[in-house]
Amino acid sequence: MVRQMAIDLAMVMSITACALDGTGSPKDDTVTDAMPTLAPMLERVLPGVVSIAVDGRLSAEEMLLLRDPEFRRMFGLPKRVQPEERRFLAQGSGIVIDAANGTIVTTHHLVDGAEEISVTLADARRLSGRMIGADAANDIAVIQVESRDLVAVPLGNSDTLRVGDYVVAIGNPFGLAQTATLGIVSGIGARNPVEPDGRFIQTDAAINPGNSGGALVNVRGELVGINDSLIGSAVSNSGIGFAIPITRAKQAVDRLLHPTPSRS
Fold it and tell me: What is the pTM of this model?
């Protein structure tokens, strides 16, 4: 027990050291030697992470999957498909990347088939979202809201991440808004069994249903990944989550926002 407490204390002190400036002094006056904390960083980042609610209709392929008896058995659904199941409600997260233009990035699988998109900000304002574009191959979607006083999350560089770097996953798991979970990068360039196309950041920061589309940030509060999926039960975290590297996501977003004119 004493050894574990020492390890935990060393971890917290190490994280705090990462948030210090070159002189060894805290970047924020609220961080003291007596109380190491990531709170100042999260206070800056949390307003840039939003909750996204989607109302839509299932595609023919999804309805076909829903009719599969084995699929319904695995997820505890009734044996027969009900008419109302043609519609769906989904909830996840998004990240403000351009405050001036109301640009929000999220995962494609969250908003795929959406007929209505509702965005709730950290201050409880609820806005209507408009789809700008989607890249299914990279599981990236861009939506836009009309609002003032938005806060963007600064972009980092996922190419510099190393296994063992501390990261924080921020989102709205199970509808619990503005939730942050601490962990480390547990794998670089990982293959995601759910979405085998592309490489992902693997992390043990808890990623649960509702976190999809949320932010994975380093201890400086820079966006290094977009939370995408997890391995294990559909209702709980198993310690292995995947995030889309921000370097790859930014390339997809740039293509969606600035499409290359087609040649006739």
Answer: 0.76
